Amino acid sequence: MAHVKHLDRGSVGRLTHEWERDKKPDGTWAFEPTGKIDPSRTCLNYKLGTGRADVNVKARLADPGLKVARRKDLNVISSWVITCPQELKDSKADREKFFRICYEFLQDRYGAENVMQGYVHMDETTPHMHVPTVPVADGRVSAKALYNRRELHNMQRDLDARCAAEWGQKGLVLNGRTAGNYTVEELKQRDVDRAAIEADRRAAEDARAAAEQQYKQAARDRQRAAEELREARRIRQETEMVYNAAQEEAIQNMHARIERATAAAVNKINEFVTNVTRKDRLTDALKTKQWQDPPRKGFDAMVEDAKRRAFMQQIKREEPENTANKTQEEGFSL
After folding, report:
1. Is 121 exposed, middle or buried, given 0-12, 13-18 or 19+ CB atoms closer than 10 A?
2. 2-181: which CATH number, 3.30.930.30, 2.40.440.10, 3.40.50.1820, 3.90.650.10?
């Protein structure tokens, strides 16, 4: 018969004292015995593996490649208790062989690095072995993930098959007690275990419901984010259209201003050329001017001639437009 019990960190040291049968300096037990221990038979106890369970468990949990949740109630030890079959307990050779096969079976199944010692106790009513193991599933410590109902059934079935192959007899592990013939104390423990399993199941369902709710909320958030992204892209497109339209209008206005400035400059150049031409023509006309009035004699002729010479000197210093106006005022024509 084999069953497993899951323990937290605080129980490792206490149970190691019990498994090792540690004593105080005064010779009394360093633990509270959970069963009837015959001190005269304690010397018959022995251990498979080396070291102490508390030390080895601490070292295993400190492995950087192992994920260990930081929870006080985390079960870091799954202690298997394997009872020697009635058919083998009277033979020392068969008894030792049975415990060794069971210990190696657990090492092969759950990893030698996770299986601590095998404490064989001969000082209680029935020979049995405690095998503390670190429950590792997918690289993390989790008794719940490793020891589900299917695994517990398959483990005992496979161990029974291993023992049957050795002794040619089935039912050494899956005996009558495993089939349902329990004592009152075992029935109470089974009810406790079932209640714990039911609590774990409800907790798992609650966790799954919470995870589904979180997934739905994440999907809604993702959809909202997608809508906001589409809206942002639409606003960006509209902004780019407005910017392009404003830029095109500014370019058109600039072209219009350039055209107007160019036309004004051309007009000024043409006006300047016209004025220069008029000045040249006026100058030529003044140089070749034939007075139509009859020649004057005496003082009047002298005055008129002085006025003409003064006017000729003045128009050389003035602008063409002023020259044309004054020429007309003085009676000259081209």
Report:
1. buried
2. 3.30.930.30
Amino acid symbol at 214: Q
Query: 115 near 50, Cβ under 8 Å?
Result: no
- Tokens 């095109």 correspond to 248
Residue 44 DSSP symbol: G
Question: In the chain, where are the structural domains located?
Answer: 2-181, 289-334
Cβ within 8 Å of residue 169, ≥6 positions away: 87, 163
Helix axes 92-110, 149-167, angle to 10 degrees: 140
Alpha-carbon gap, residue 113 to 161, rounded angstroms: 24
| Tens of pLDDT, residues 303-320 | 667 777 777 776 666 655
pLDDT per position as a tens digit, 211-270 = 999 999 999 999 999 999 999 998 999 888 988 888 888 888 888 888 888 888 888 888
Helix (H, G, I), strand (E, B) or coil at 120: strand
Helices 184-287 and 320-329 cross at an angle (nearest 10°) of 40
pTM of structure:
0.53
Cα–Cα distance, 237 to 234 (Å, whole number): 5
